[in-house]
Amino acid sequence: MHGIKKWFGTFQAVDDVTLEIRSNEFFTLLGPSGCGKTTLLRMIAGFELPTEGQVLLDGTDISRLLPNQRPVNTVFQNYALFPHLTVAENIGFGLKMLGKPKSEIDSVVKDMLKLVHLEGRGNNPVTQLSGGQQQRVALARALAPRPKVLLLDEPLSALDLKLRKSMQMELKRLQLETGITFVFVTHDQEEALTMSDRIAVMSTGTVRQVGSPWDIYDRPAERFVADFIGETNFLEADVVSVSGDRARVRLSSGAEISATYPDGVTPKGKVTIVVRPEHARLGPPGSGVLEGVLDDIVYLGTDNHFHVKVDGGGTFIVRQQNAKSGPCGFSEQERVSIAINDDVAQILRD
Amino acid sequence: MAKTFSIKRQPGFATIAMFCFFLLYLPIATLVVYSFNSGSSIAIWEGFSLRWFQSAWNNQQVIEASVRSLQIAAVAAVIATACATLAAIATTRTAPYRGLTIKYSIINMPLLVPEIVTAVALLILFSRVKVWTGYSGLGYLIVAHAAFCIPFAYMPIRARLESMDLSLERAASDLYASSFQTFRYVTLPLLWPGILAGLMLAFVISLDDVVITEFVKSGGQDTLPTYMLGQLRRVVTPEMNAISTVFLVISLAIVTLFFFLSRTPQKDNE
């Protein structure tokens, strides 16, 4: 079993972070720029030393080792391919530095070229490759020495949208095929949701929540997480009762709905709940739990966003898929009611 | 397109530019032309001939001085470039610290100190050393030349190091390269054009030095420039022009090579 735990105290960029990354998982550090996610990654790689705390790999403290002494490889944001070497020499660089015999290097390089679909390009200078191809060389170069952990520092940010989508699939496939632990850094929530087994959402040097993509999206623990990932509605509510892992809350309209709450919290008094726009439905007045006036309809092709001015203040967004072709059946300034599906509301910690 | 300001369209620009080029290159052009003069005057054209090139080629003193110049320049340039490379790495591959700017200044100081001051200082120093050691060979000239060539070699190497992507060295160390291996397999190959450029610049600078050589040399240690200076004091023949022309061609060739080598960093970025 392999796990990394880190404690960083009083570090400017990373403030007292403890994380356990499991073996063979695709783990993502997600957060806005400046949240410390890249610093964290660089400490695993060895380019930065933690002021306090430890980086443990399989129970061994590696936090004071030089980058070349750690069985960890990095895919850099700008790829950092060696411009004076060919594709094959780039991929074989790590093994060559480890002093592996030439025959072994050649066969690994061949396998790697195949793995990233660059067969026959081994003798090309890397400077002649396209952005997507360079990206794949960078991946192959980092995977070739079979590291215990592969670190990826926003490697897709320089690619255009289409290429980025196909590289997301590619990365996930590589991770499954090689069985290597991937630690991926990104500020793109969609990237994180698509690829990860687990996500750590970071903000201002601290980890706000760790969980599966579903946990992070559907069961955000706090306002920052809910706000950062996707679109969401925040509602003020009063806790009526708590039973098991559910709580009854009363909305401003007086209606009661059931809501889940994060671990380690006993909801009471005034709380904030979140409801995703796609988890609510629009209906005729009186049919739902919140009443209001339809303020704006935004047509997005695949679905409509209904901006509802809720009686008693605030705006609530409802998102409905355009399953059928034709008008949506509602018009602006109409009085409507919002129904909230069961078990979709989540109480926030803060 | 709206007219933007362009110096090229100002009245008289072409005239002034041509005049400046004329002033700059007329003397050199005259020198080159008269090196092909068949007569023995450097002012009266008597016909085309290569006799002065031949005469220079057959002049034992010219050959000896040339060989000496090349020897000194070659050895001094290599020493200067080696020192400059180490200095450049030390000053660019470090976190900025107090006193780094002072170090830059100290390395570049020889560019600012009047040459005559360096010359006199070296003369005094070396005369002492000569007394102590009894050695009076070319070593003094080589050391002197290496010293004033260091900043010239330093500049292109430092420029190259500063334009280099630091994440390359980081990537190498991430891929299990020790710091020596990183230098050997990544930094050095990428730095090579800069080192060659520095080497050539140092070579050219050493080759045409007069002031310091004149002060430091012992008897019979004339380099080509000091030999020519000595000859000009007596009688001036187109032989001097011929030697200068050859000198010019060699320098131009080296500078052209320097230009092409120092252009490579931009190519890498494409």
Automatic annotation (TrEMBL), chain B:
InterPro entries noted in UniProt: Bact_Polyamine_Transport (IPR051789), MetI-like (IPR000515), MetI-like_sf (IPR035906)
Q: How does it sit in the membrane?
A: Multi-pass membrane protein
Cell compartments where the protein resides: Cell inner membrane; Cell membrane
TM segment ranges:
12-36, 72-92, 104-126, 138-157, 185-207, 242-261
ABC transmembrane type-1 domain ranges (all copies): 66-258
Q: Which CDD domains match?
A: TM_PBP2
List cellular component terms (GO).
Answer: plasma membrane
SUPFAM superfamilies in the cross-refs:
MetI-like
Biological process (GO) annotations held by this record are: transmembrane transport
- Keywords in alphabetical order, please: Cell inner membrane, Cell membrane, Membrane, Transmembrane, Transmembrane helix, Transport
Function, please?
Required for the activity of the bacterial periplasmic transport system of putrescine and spermidine.
Record-stated family: Belongs to the binding-protein-dependent transport system permease family. CysTW subfamily.
> Which protein, by its recorded name, is this?
Spermidine/putrescine transport system permease protein PotC
Q: Give the species.
A: Shinella kummerowiae
